[in-house]
Amino acid sequence: MAKPLSILFVTSEIYPYAKESGIGDFAYSYSLAMRELGHDIRVMTPKYGNVSERKNKIHEINRLRDIPISIGEQSFPATVKSSSLSNPRYKVQAYITTNYEFFDSRKGIYHNLADWKLFEDNFDRFLYFSRSVVETCLILGWFPDIIHCNDWHTAIIPAYLKLLFPNKFKKTRTVLTIHNLQGHPAVPISEFSNTGLPKDYISSFKHKNMLNLFKAGLIYSNFVTTVSPSYAKILLTDKEYTNGLNSVFKEYNSKFKGILNGIEQFTWNPSYDYYIHSKFDGNTQDFKYNNKVELCNKVGLEFDPKKPIFAIISKLDNSKGIGLLLETIPEIIRKDFQLVILGLGDAEIQKQLEKLAKKYSKKIKVIFSMDEALAHQIEAGSDFFLLPAANEPFGLNMLYSLAYGSIPIVCYSGGFVDTAIDIDESQENGNSIVFKNYNVEDFANAFKRAFNLYADKNKLYDLIERNMSKNYSWQNSALQYDEIYRNIMKEQNA
C-alpha cells in the first residue's frame, strides 16, 4: 500500500464554517475524500464574523497567537485557532485564521451582505490569509508533502514558498485548483508591493498591466487543476473568456488538468440527509411527494401535485443566467407551475425578482439568503432544477439535483458538457433537459419540454429513478488527485 501523504488544503471558504460559492462544498467533500484514502489532510481557512466559535468548537493554540503578518508596510496580528470538520466516518483537523479587521468584523466572505458589493480590500484580505498559512507552517515546523491551494484567494502561496522560503519548503509540492477564472478582482500592478515579494518577480504576476494571481499560480505551482475537463478546454482555448490568459495556460499545459468534482457521501445523500423532511427509502414517488409538500409549507406555496416546481439556488447575477431567467419567465407565465428561487446577489436583479414574486405571489417565491437547510429541501422537493449559466465551470447543484431526483434543465456549456446528457438524445443515459443556445427561445422551449415530461409520470419517474441510482461521489476523482500528488512527489525526489 502506498505511503499516506501529509496535505494542507487551503481555502477561502469551507462548509460548515462558511460558504458562499461552490468552493465551500468542494473543500469540505474533497478533504474528507482524501482522508478516506488514508492521507493526513488538514485544512486551513479564515474565520468570518458569522462563524460561531462555540458552535464550531474553535479553540486557541498557544503558540499560534498574535502572529505578525505584513501587508505592504503595515503589520497585523493573526491568531490561528484549531477546530475539526467531519462526516460519520472521518474527521479532518482545521486551522482557522482569525483577525478582526480583515475577517471577524465582516459577516460576508467576499461581499458586504447588505448591498452585495465586493469588499474593496479583498486582495489584501486574502494576501493576509495566504501569509498566515505560510507562517503557521513555519511556527509549527510542519512542512507537508502537499499544499493544495484554491482559486485566486490562495494562488500566491506557491510563489511565497519558492521565492521566500525555498529551503524550508524544499520537499513540499503545490497544487492549485481554479474554480472560476473570472472571479479574480481587478488589481493594479502597483499593489505588487503589498505581497512582500522581491520586485524582480513582478513579471510573473503581470497580465495586461494588471496584477494576476492566477498567472503566478500557473507559473509557481507544481500542478494546476480545474473543476471539469470542458472548463479546462475553455481556459486553454478561449482568448476572450480568459482575457488572453489562455496563452499562459497553453504554456503550462503539461501540468494542467480538468477533473470533475464529486459530492460528499453523507451530507448530500437523500438517504441520510438530516436537513430534509423525508429520507429516501427506495420509494421514489413517496420521497418526491413528501418533500414537495414540505417545500411548499416552508416557502409559502400552496401544494398542488398537478403543478411542477422549478427551482434555482444560485448567486443572483448574470453570470449564473438569472438575467436570462427574468427574460424567459414572461414567455411561460401562463402555464401552471411554481418557481422557488434561493440566493443572494446583484441588488438590481434582486429588485427585479422581488417585483416578479410580488406580482405572481401564488407562483413564485424568492428567498434572499444562503440557507443551507432550505437548499437541501429545495433539491429534494423540486421537480426541475434550473442551471442556465452560459459558462459554468462545473456546478455542484447539477450533481445534487441528479442525486435528489430533481431533473436538471441545463445550458449546454462549460462544465455541464461533461455531465449533462439530453433525455431525447439518449434514452438509456439521458439525465437532463438540455438547451444549447443561450437565448430566451431555447430556454422557454426547455420549459415546455419539462411540462410535457411532467405530464408523463411513467417517463418522469423512470428518469428520476435512473438519476438517483448513479454514483456521484468523489471515488474516481479523488484517485486522479491522488495520482497527481504522487507523480509530483516523484518529480521532487527524482
Features:
Rossmann fold, 2 domains, globular, 36% helix, 10-stranded mixed sheet
Task: Supply the helix-strand structural class.
Answer: alpha/beta
The top level CATH class name of the largest domain: Alpha Beta
CATH superfamily of the largest domain: Glycogen Phosphorylase B
Q: What is Rg? A: 23 Å
Question: Please, how many helices?
Answer: 16
Strand percentage lies at 15-25%
User: What number of structural domains do the residues give?
Assistant: 2
CATH fold descriptor of the largest domain: Rossmann fold
Query: What does the average pLDDT come to?
Result: 96
Name given to the CATH architecture of the largest domain: 3-Layer(aba) Sandwich
* Rough outline: globular
pLDDT < 50 runs, ≥5 residues: none
Major β-sheet, in short?
Answer: 10 strands, mixed
Number of strands: 18
Taking the alpha carbons of the first and last residues, their distance comes to 21 Å
**Helix share bin:** 25-40%
